[in-house]
Amino acid sequence: MGLSAHAQSDEHPMDTLQVHGFLSQALVITDDNNFFGHSSRGGGSLEFTEIGLNVSLRPHHDVLVAAQMLSRRAGGASSDAQPELDYGLIDYQMVSNQQRTFGVQLGRFKNPFGFYNQTRDVAFTRPSILLPQSIYFDRTRSLALSGDGVSLYHEERLATGVLRTQVGAGQAQTGEDLQSTLRLEDVPGKLKAKQSAIGQIRYEHDGSRIIAALSAAQAKASFDSSISEQADISFRFRPVVLSLQYNEELWSLTGEFALRRTKLGGVENRLVNDVTGESWYFQYARRFASEWQWLVRYDSLTSNRADRNGKSFEESTGGNIPAHTRFADDLTFGLQWTPHPQVMLSGEYHNVDGTGWLPIQDNPDSSATSRHWNMWLFQLSVRF
């Protein structure tokens, strides 16, 4: 618990001002395909950079104002790293005592999705350089990242643990990544976000030794075409994620499973206009020598449960888009070294079968991609 309401009322608001930041720079090397730039050429790609600056202030003991600017480049042109508002909100706690907390957030809030979505851009909060791509898509990250609207949260402290719930409603974000994934990047028109909703219930037992969460969301968008050759498209995404984690002093087991229903209006192909995808991963992390951690993870993505190997989809495109674009199985080994609380060095290796989460903007010709490929990543991260 923080300071009492009386003690905080005597505190000047500027005394509560906090400013923090972080920077991460990665090198990405692949033997085939490209990930975050031309990673399969020469010495790899340095086009994965994350820079963030956040500030928070308490003008009143039960009111928090917080915002974060984020500059992120993940392949593409250097102009893609233009700083944008990651989150910006007013947080009002209507109830806050030893038993429970209840509050509301107004503005741009981070979506409570799975274990890692709300802090996914801060390297120190991730177990690896890349989060499991089957759950935390980087190629369509804008849709899951945040929403503009209102979010309600509740925390109940029980004798055996803590129960947390959060629900939000507002307008989802639709960046160029979504338009590229829908293969509309060269089609004249405008992609617009619609009203969406998200919710999560999370229970932390015995001091977070066991953590379980259930997340569900509905995100909507529409593409209004400017040419008669392209029909207008409606997009609806309904994921449900079950998250489980078991923690001991030196090791952790983590698993998440998701069903992802996607519906596209205005698209003729039945293999993409109403499908249910499946995602899951299982991860073991081990801490040693106080400053080190290694992990091993198996991550699996299926775009359509009714066409797991993608063969029917490939046939529907006349063989123009390979079957391996509809799935991805990724075996990952990672290592982190934190020589100082504000400095971290990371490295990891991915052996991947399939290209289901490969960024389309880095690989515009999917027929030229390789089904089996390897990736090495190295990252330096600092924070203050």
How would you describe what is shown here?
The chain is mainly β and 384 residues long. The chain is built from 5 helices and 17 strands. Strand 11 (233-247) and strand 12 (251-265) form a beta hairpin. The protein is globular, with a radius of gyration of 21 Å. The protein starts with a helix and ends with a strand. Mean pLDDT is 89; it is low at 1-8.
Write the layout of secondary structure elements.
Blueprint: H1 5-9, E1 18-30, E2 45-60, E3 63-74, E4 84-96, E5 100-110, H2 141-145, E6 146-157, E7 161-172, H3 176-181, E8 189-193, E9 195-205, E10 210-225, E11 233-247, E12 251-265, H4 270-273, E13 274-288, E14 292-302, H5 311-316, E15 327-340, E16 343-354, E17 372-383
Antiparallel strand pairs: 1-2, 1-17, 2-3, 3-4, 4-5, 5-6, 6-7, 7-9, 8-10, 9-10, 10-11, 11-12, 12-13, 13-14, 14-15, 15-16, 16-17
